[in-house]
Amino acid sequence: LLLDHGGIWLLELNKFHADTIENEQQRWLKFFKDGEQLDADALPTWMQTDEMRQAMSTLKAFSEKDRAYHAYQARQNYLREQRGIQRHIDELKAEAEQARVREEQERAAKEAALKREAAALAELERLKAQLHGQQD
Asked: Coiled-coil regions in this chain (predicted)?
């Protein structure tokens, strides 16, 4: 039966403070408590078993995947921010272009009105001159 080989343990890691490892339970407790701070290439003597090397290898693989995941998330966040910034810049450019077009249309309308006014004044002067020419 599997019950002969397994069990459920509740471990309070913050209460474990052994300096020397005397049995497998202490070895695992120390690994769970200090495993993340260990150098996989320079393991202490209490980690020199096949099971502990395998556990360290698994921990290292998970840590690398975790770092890769966080790097991926950071990259995605950066790209999302850049797209938002670019979208804002594009909106500002579009607003500036619309304002420029409006100003150009207003300038063109004023210029056309001034030309019509100048043409009307010229026509008025021409008619005055013609009228004065007929009176003489």
From this structure: 75-134
Please report the pLDDT score of residue 5 as a whole number. Answer: 66
pLDDT block averages, 10 residues each, the chain of length 136: 64 81 85 83 84 88 88 94 97 97 97 97 93 80
Q: Is 129 contained in some domain? A: yes
Q: What total number of domains does the chain contain?
A: 1
Fill in the DSSP letter of residue 46: G
88: enclosing H helix or E strand = helix 50-135
- The rounded distance, in Å, linking the Cα atoms of 127 and 124 is 5
User: At 19, phi and psi to the nearest 5?
Assistant: -90, -35
3 state SS of 26: helix
What's the rounded Cα separation, in Å, for the pair 135 and 26?
A: 127
12 falls within a domain: no
Residues in the chain: 136
- Which DSSP state fits 23? S
Instruction: Output the CA torsion 76→81→82→85 (10° steps).
Output: 160
In a domain, 40, yes or no: yes
Would residue 17 count as lying in a domain? no
**Is residue 63 within 8 Å of residue 36, measured between CB atoms?**
yes
